[in-house]
Each structure stands twice: as C-alpha cells, then as structure tokens.
C-alpha cells in the first residue's frame, strides 16, 4: 500500500521505511491531562535542536491532536512518543494501548467541537497513518504523521556523544 493517505479514509498501516539510519528521540509519558503539552514541548525541542524551526507550529499542532486522542480514547496508563528524523523528513509516532485503529481523517461538517483531530492532521501533514505496536509489546498501535523539512546542513546534524 502507498505510504500516503488514500482516499478511502483508511490510513496506511505502517510508516515508510527510512532510506538511511534516522535520528530517533523517544518520550514515554503517563496518560494524563498534561500529556499532550509534554509531547508538544518535546517535539518543539527536538525540531529546534536539529534546525527545523519552520516545522514547529505544524508539528506541535499535529502532535497535540495525536497525543490528545491517545489521552482521551486509549486504554492503558501511558503513551509513547517517538520522533524520527531522516532529513529532510520528520515523523512523529504516538503509541498507545488501544487496538482500535482510526479510520476517518476528514473534518466534520458544521460546528462540532470534537472529531476534528485526524482531519487536521490529514490536512496539515504530508502523510499520516498507523503502525503496529512498539517492538517491546507495551503498546498495541501507533498513529503517525510526517512533514518534509528543509535539507539538513552539516552544522544542524546531531553529533555523537564524545563525553
């Protein structure tokens, strides 16, 4: 299946495979009312740290939607956020314990206050979809989005720890 969102409202099951080793940053959070803010701040910090500041607003909005969905609708007492950077692509995955996959990604009609999250993600992200649970088996599924950033400059690349 193609990695982009198809018109049948079913997200692709897995994110695209990176063409080289990506940079990966992971946050595990309690499933708590503060989780969406903590996840947003984490994503903003990572993007600012790797020189992708132009993606911060869109990425934090999409992250907030996915983390809020996990907080409101998922089972379990935690969620996991994974930020994968394969320049110039940037992917955020939010894992939770729910086995229920999201299916619709269109904005609801009218003045409804709820049900807009995945529609916003679909409208703003270059791609989005679902992934199988984490490798350890703590989480049943992940929902991800991807944005294209600027080409990486040598000074923006994360450097290995030489401590």
TrEMBL record:
<dbReference type="Pfam" id="PF13581">
    <property type="entry name" value="HATPase_c_2"/>
</dbReference>
<keyword id="KW-0723">Serine/threonine-protein kinase</keyword>
<keyword id="KW-0418">Kinase</keyword>
<dbReference type="InterPro" id="IPR003594">
    <property type="entry name" value="HATPase_dom"/>
</dbReference>
<feature type="region of interest" description="Disordered">
    <location>
        <begin position="1"/>
        <end position="23"/>
    </location>
</feature>
<feature type="domain" description="Histidine kinase/HSP90-like ATPase">
    <location>
        <begin position="39"/>
        <end position="128"/>
    </location>
</feature>
<dbReference type="GO" id="GO:0004674">
    <property type="term" value="F:protein serine/threonine kinase activity"/>
</dbReference>
<dbReference type="InterPro" id="IPR050267">
    <property type="entry name" value="Anti-sigma-factor_SerPK"/>
</dbReference>
<dbReference type="InterPro" id="IPR036890">
    <property type="entry name" value="HATPase_C_sf"/>
</dbReference>
<keyword id="KW-0808">Transferase</keyword>
<protein>
    <recommendedName>
        <fullName>Histidine kinase/HSP90-like ATPase domain-containing protein</fullName>
    </recommendedName>
</protein>
């Amino acid at each position: 299946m193609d990695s982009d969102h198809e018109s049948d409202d079913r997200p692709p099951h897995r994110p695209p495979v990176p063409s080289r080793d990506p940079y990966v940053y992971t946050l595990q959070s309690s499933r708590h009312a503060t989780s969406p803010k903590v996840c947003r701040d984490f994503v903003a910090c990572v993007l600012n740290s790797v020189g992708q500041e132009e993606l911060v607003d869109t990425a934090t909005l999409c992250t907030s939607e996915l983390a809020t969905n996990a907080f409101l609708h998922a089972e379990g007492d935690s969620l996991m956020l994974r930020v994968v950077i394969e320049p110039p692509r940037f992917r955020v995955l939010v894992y939770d314990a729910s086995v229920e996959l999201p299916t619709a990604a269109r904005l609801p009609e009218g003045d409804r206050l709820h049900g807009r999250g995945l529609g916003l993600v679909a409208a703003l992200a270059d791609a989005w979809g679902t992934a199988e649970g984490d490798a350890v088996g703590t989480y049943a599924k992940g929902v991800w989005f991807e944005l294209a950033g600027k080409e990486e400059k040598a000074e923006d690349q994360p450097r290995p720890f030489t401590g």
